[in-house]
From TrEMBL:
This is Pyruvate, phosphate dikinase. Its EC number is 2.7.9.1. Gene3D superfamilies: 1.20.80.30, ATP-grasp fold, A domain, ATP-grasp fold, B domain, Phosphoenolpyruvate-binding domains, Phosphohistidine domain, Pyruvate Phosphate Dikinase, domain 2. It comes from the Bacteria. Residues 59-284, 292-341 form the Pyruvate phosphate dikinase AMP/ATP-binding domain. It is an enzyme of class 2 (transferase).
C-alpha cells in the first residue's frame, strides 16, 4: 500500500483516504490554484498507528522520499541553516472537525535556522516571531505543555513593553520570549525543544495521529455522529507567511453568506498575522471587503478563485488563504457549513443558476435542518430592552439565565434550568457547556470563530462578537452601557439578527410553520425567500418519494393539523384518552363490575362517547386511512394512585366512615397491581380477559363509520390490535370483531370495509410474522415497544439512568429509541416484512413508533420496503422530506 500522496496525486473524491483537507488541497492544486506544495499521509497510516501504537514500517521511507521531492521543488532543505524550508503539519479527517484536531506551523525552525530565516527574509522580527510560534504550538500540542504558560509569558512580555498586541513586540523581545518558551518546555516536558527538523516533523505527525483520540475530538464525533474509527490524515505543507509585515496577512472567506445564502464578499482578514490568529480572535480582523483597499491585486485574484471554486464544487465553499508579500496562497477549501435556512436557499439558488438539478437540491438539505426551521422566533412586536448587538452566527431564539462558564452551564442545565453561555470567546474546552446551553453569546470573534462554527454545527443559537458587551468571567457578569447583567439574570439572544435582549422575549412561530399551516402562501409575491425555497424542495420530495407519511393523532384537532402538514392518513390513533377525564368514572365501573350486567352497563355508557370521537376523527380525515388502536395500557393507569387511595381509606376507617366504593376500588387496585406493568395485563391481553371491551370499541368504530357513510363521507377505518405475540390471540379477537362488524352492517344497512391488523411490537410477533399475517391485513411496527423488548430496556427509566454512560463509552452513538437500531431491532423488522409479505403479498406495512419521524430511521424504513411511516404531526414535513431524499 501507498501511505503518502503528493498534493498533485490526489483529488476531492479521496476524502476517506486523504481526509477532507488533503483531498481538497489536491483538488485545488490540480485546478491550477496557488497552493503551497506538500503531501498527505493517509488515514490508513493513522489507523495502523492507532491500532498498533507505531507507524507502519514503510511510512518513514515514503515520507523521506516525498520530503526530498518537496525540498527539490522548493530549492531548499527542511530546516536548512542558511535558508530553511519550513512546513506545517496539519490534521485533516474525512469530516471536518473545526478546532478539534491539532496543527503545528513553522516546523523546521531551530536556533540555527532562525538566523537563516532572518537573513533570507531580511526581517528579524518575523523570524523570531515564527520561532516563538513554533515552540508554543509544538510545546502545547506535541509535548503536552499547558498552553496557558506560553500565553502568560507572552502577556507578561507585552505588559513589560506596555503594548497591547503581539505585533508590537520587536525582534529582541521575541528572541527573549523564545528563550523563555524553551525554558518552559524543558521544565514542563522534561526535555529540550528538539533542534533536529526531521524529529520535529515526525513528532508532529505522531501528535496529529494521537489527536484523533483526544477527549474533545471524541465528544465532537459523538455529537456529530462521526464514526470513531476513521482516523485522520496528516498534511505536510510548505509554509507561506502572513506575518511578514503589512503587505502580508491571512484570512478566511465564504463564497456566499453561510447564514443567508446571499452571494457577496464574506470573510475576515488580518494583516501581518499567521493562520491561527484569525480564528482565535487574538486581534480584531477587518471585513474581507477591506482587502480591496489593502491589496487590490490579491483581492481580485481571490474573487476570481472563489468563483472558480463555486462553479467547480457547485456549492458554497469556505476558504483559508494567506498573502505573503503580495502573493496570494490558498491553504484550504471545503464545502462550507451553513445554517438550515441558507441550505434551502442555496440549494434553490444553485438550481436557478443551472449549477445543480432538483434531485441534487433535495440532497443538499435534510430533515434536521427543516426541523430547525420550524422552531419559533422572537416576537417582533414585543416590547424589548436591547442590550447590544453582535453577529448573527447561528439562528434561533434562545432565552435563558446568564452563566459565564461551562461548568455552571452544565450544572444548572442538569437541574432543569435553561442557560445562555456567555464567554468572551469559546475554545474547545467549552464544548460541554455549549451543548448544555440553550444558546451561546460571545463578545469576540466573527462568523468563523470557534463559537460560531461549533454552534452552527450543533444547530444551537449563537450570537458572537457582541463587542459592546464587556464580559467579566471572573466576577461572573457582563457590563454594557452601564448596565450590569449578573449570573442568573435572564437574557434572550436572537441568532438570526444578532440582537441581545435583557429579560425574556416572547417567541412567535416560524414562517415555515406558517407556510405548512397554510397561513402563508409560497406563491405570494411578498412570500419569504425561505418559504419559497422550502416549498419548491418539498414539492420535489413529495413527487419522488415512495413512502407515504401518516400522523400519530388522537383527536380531530391534531388530525386536521396533520392534514395541513401533509399527512396522508392516521397511522396511530390511541384510544386511551377516550377513557380519561370525566369518563374515568365509567372506566372504574367497568373495572369494578361484579356481574356481567354491571360490566355491560358500563360499556354501554362508554359506547356513544367513543363513537362520537370516531365520527369527528373520520370526518377530519375523510377519504384517508385512519388506524385506530384498541385499548393498550394496563388498566391500573385509569385507577387512582395506590398510596393516595390507601390513605383515603385508612382515614375513613379511623372515622368509622366506610366508603364502600373506595374499599372496592382499593381491592381492585391491589388486584391489578403489577411489578412490571409494561409486560403485564395490557394490549390484546385486556381484550381477551375483559369481556366486551374490545367489541365495544369495534362497535363504536363500525357505527361511526356507518354514520359517516350515511352522511356521504368516506371513512377508511383500520382496526389495530396491540401487543400481539401469537396469531392465536389475533384470531380470537378477529372473530369477535368480525361478528360485531357484521352485526352493525345488518342493523345499519351500510356495507363496511374495515381492515383488521396488528402491531408488531414484541419479538415473538416479529419472529412469527408469517403466521400472524394470516390473520392480519396490515402490520404496523411499534418500534418503541419493540426496541424496549428486544434490548430489554425500560424506556421510561434507562435514558435518565445509564444511557449517558453508554453514549460516552460509545456502546451506541445515539439512543436506539431515537434512531432505529438497524442491526437488532431493524433486522427483526426486515425479516418480519419478508415473512409477512410471503404469507400475504398485499399486506400493508407501516411503522408508528417515534422512529417514524427520525430522518435516519425513515431512510431505513424506505429501504426495507414499508408502505408508510407515521409520526407526530410536527414531524410530518421532516418525514416527507427524508422519504423523498431516501427515494431519489
Ligand atoms: P484547522 O483544521 O484547525 O483549520 P489548519 O491545518 O487549517 O487547521 O491550520 C491552522 C491555521 O494555520 C490555518 O489558519 C491555516 O490557514 C494555517 N496554515 C496551515 N498551514 C499553513 C502553511 N503551510 N502556511 C501558512 N499557514 C498555514
Ligand atoms: Mg483550516
Ligand atoms: Mg406499544
Amino acid at each position: 500500500v501507498k501511505f503518502v500522496y503528493d498534493f498533485t496525486e490526489g483529488n476531492k473524491e479521496l476524502k476517506d483516504l486523504l481526509g477532507g483537507k488533503g483531498a481538497n488541497l489536491a483538488e485545488m492544486t490540480n485546478l491550477g490554484l496557488p497552493v503551497p506544495p506538500g503531501f498527505t499521509i493517509t488515514t490508513e497510516a493513522c489507523k495502523v498507528y492507532l491500532d498498533s501504537g507505531d507507524e507502519p514500517a514503510a511510512l518513514r521511507d515514503e515520507v523521506s522520499a516525498h520530503l526530498s521531492a518537496l525540498e527539490k521543488t522548493m530549492g531548499k532543505k527542511l530546516g536548512q541553516a542558511d535558508d530553511p524550508l519550513l512546513v506545517s503539519v496539519r490534521s485533516g479527517a474525512k469530516f471536518s472537525m473545526p478546532g478539534m484536531m491539532d496543527t503545528v506551523l513553522n516546523i523546521g525552525l531551530s536556533d540555527k535556522s532562525v538566523q537563516g530565516l532572518a537573513k533570507q527574509s531580511g526581517d528579524d522580527r518575523f523570524a523570531w516571531d515564527s520561532y516563538r510560534r513554533l515552540i508554543q504550538m509544538f510545546g502545547k500540542t506535541v509535548l503536552g505543555v499547558d498552553g496557558e504558560l506560553f500565553e502568560d509569558a507572552l502577556d507578561k512580555a507585552k505588559e513589560t513593553k506596555k503594548v497591547t498586541v503581539d505585533t508590537d513586540l520587536d525582534a529582541a523581545e521575541l528572541k527573549k520570549l523564545v528563550t523563555k518558551f524553551k525554558k518552559i518546555v524543558k521544565s514542563e516536558a522534561g526535555r529540550d525543544f528538539p533542534q533536529d527538523p526531521r524529529e520535529q516533523m515526525d513528532l508532529a505527525i505522531h501528535a496529529v495521529f494521537d489527536s484523533w483520540n483526544t477527549d474533545r475530538a471524541k465528544l465532537y464525533r459523538r455529537q456529530e455522529r462521526i464514526p470513531g474509527d476513521l482516523g485522520t490524515a496528516v498534511n505536510v505543507c510548505s509554509m507561506v507567511f502572513g506575518n511578514l509585515g503589512p503587505d502580508s496577512g491571512t484570512g478566511v472567506a465564504f463564497t456566499r453568506d453561510p447564514a443567508s445564502g446571499q452571494q457577496g464578499v464574506y470573510g475576515d482578514y488580518l494583516q501581518n498575522a499567521q493562520g491561527e490568529d484569525v480564528v482565535a480572535g487574538i486581534r480584531n480582523t477587518v471585513p474581507l471587503a477591506d482587502l480591496e483597499q489593502i491589496d487590490k491585486k490579491s483581492y481580485d485574484q481571490l474573487m476570481q478563485i472563489m468563483e472558480t471554486l463555486e462553479t467547480h464544487y457547485k456549492d458554497l465553499c469556505d476558504i483559508e488563504f494567506t498573502i505573503e508579500r503580495g502573493q496570494l496562497w490558498m491553504l484550504q477549501t471545503r464545502v462550507g457549513k451553513r445554517t438550515a435556512g441558507a441550505a434551502f436557499r442555496i440549494a434553490t439558488q444553485l438550481v436557478d443558476q443551472g449549477l445543480i438539478d432538483e434531485a441534487e437540491a433535495l440532497q443538499r438539505v435534510n430533515g434536521a435542518q427543516l426541523a430547525q426551521l420550524m422552531f419559533p422566533r422572537f416576537d417582533e412586536d414585543a416590547k424589548v430592552e436591547q442590550l447590544g448587538r453582535g453577529i448573527a452566527a447561528s439562528p434561533g431564539a434562545a432565552v435563558g439565565k446568564a452563566v459565564f462558564d461551562s461548568y455552571t452551564a452544565i450544572k444548572w442545565s442538569r437541574s432543569g434550568e435553561k442557560v445562555i453561555l456567555i464567554r468572551r470567546e469559546t475554545n474547545p474546552d467549552d464544548l460541554d457547556g455549549m451543548i448544555a446551553a440553550e444558546g451561546i453569546l460571545t463578545s469576540r470573534g466573527g462568523k468563523t470563530s470557534h463559537a460560531a462554527v461549533v454552534a452552527r454545527g450543533m444547530g444551537k443559537t449563537c450570537v458572537c462578537g457582541a463587542e459592546d458587551l464587556e464580559v467579566d468571567t471572573k466576577r461572573r457578569r457582563l457590563t454594557v452601557n452601564g448596565h450590569v447583567v449578573e449570573e442568573g439574570d435572564v437574557v434572550s439572544i436572537d441568532g438570526s439578527t444578532g440582537k441581545v435582549y435583557l429579560g425574556e422575549v416572547p417567541v412567535v412561530p416560524s414562517p415555515v410553520v406558517e407556510y405548512f399551516e397554510g397561513r402563508m402562501h409560497a406563491g405570494a409575491d411578498d412570500a419569504d425567500e425561505l418559504v419559497k425555497a422550502v416549498h419548491r424542495i418539498m414539492a420535489y420530495a413529495d413527487r419522488v418519494r415512495r413512502l407515504r407519511v401518516r400522523a400519530n393523532a388522537d383527536n380531530a384537532e391534531d388530525a386536521l393539523r396533520a392534514r395541513r402538514f401533509g399527512a396522508q392518513g392516521i397511522g396511530l390513533c390511541r384510544t386511551e384518552h377516550m377513557f380519561l377525564g370525566e369518563r374515568r368514572e365509567l372506566v372504574e365501573h367497568l373495572i369494578l363490575a361484579d356481574t356481567d350486567e354491571e360490566r355491560e352497563n358500563a360499556l354501554k355508557e362508554l359506547l356513544p362517547l367513543q363513537k362520537r370521537d370516531f365520527i369527528e376523527l373520520f370526518e377530519a380525515m375523510d377519504g384517508l386511512p385512519v388506524t385506530v388502536r384498541l385499548l393498550d395500557p394496563p388498566l391500573h393507569e385509569f385507577l387512582p394512585d395506590i398510596t393516595e387511595l390507601s390513605v383515603r381509606v385508612a382515614l375513613a376507617e379511623s372515622r368509622k366512615d366506610h366508603n364502600e366504593n373506595d374499599l372496592r376500588l382499593l381491592q381492585a387496585v391491589h388486584r391489578l397491581h403489577e411489578q412490571n406493568p409494561m409486560l403485564g395485563l395490557r394490549g390484546v391481553r385486556l381484550g381477551l380477559v375483559i369481556p366486551g371491551l374490545f367489541t365495544m370499541q369495534v362497535r363504536a368504530i363500525a357505527e361511526a363509520a356507518a354514520e359517516r357513510k350515511n352522511a356521504k363521507g368516506d371513512p377508511r377505518a383500520e382496526i389495530m390490535i396491540p401487543l400481539v405475540g401469537t396469531v392465536q390471540e389475533l384470531e380470537i379477537v378477529r372473530e369477535e370483531a368480525e361478528q360485531v362488524i357484521a352485526d352493525v352492517e345488518r342493523t345499519t344497512g351500510v356495507a363496511l370495509k374495515l381492515a383488521l391488523g396488528t402491531m408488531i411490537e414484541l419479538p415473538r410477533a416479529a419472529l412469527t410474522a408469517g403466521q400472524i399475517a394470516e390473520a392480519a391485513e396490515f402490520f404496523s411496527f411499534g418500534t418503541n415497544d419493540l426496541t424496549q423488548t428486544v434490548w430489554g430496556f425500560s424506556r421510561d427509566d434507562v435514558e435518565a439512568s445509564f444511557f449517558t454512560a453508554y453514549l460516552e463509552k460509545g456502546i451506541f452513538g445515539v439512543s436506539p429509541f431515537e434512531t432505529i437500531d438497524k442491526d437488532g431491532v431493524g433486522k427483526l423488522v426486515r425479516d418480519a416484512v419478508a415473512a409477512g409479505r410471503a404469507t400475504r403479498p398485499d399486506l400493508k406495512l407501516g411503522v408508528c413508533g417515534e422512529h417514524g419521524g427520525d430522518p435516519e430511521s425513515v431512510h431505513f424504513f424506505h429501504e426495507v420496503g414499508l408502505d408508510y411511516v407515521s409520526c407526530s404531526p410536527f414531524r410530518i414535513p421532516v418525514a416527507r422530506l427524508e422519504a423523498g431524499r431516501a427515494a431519489s
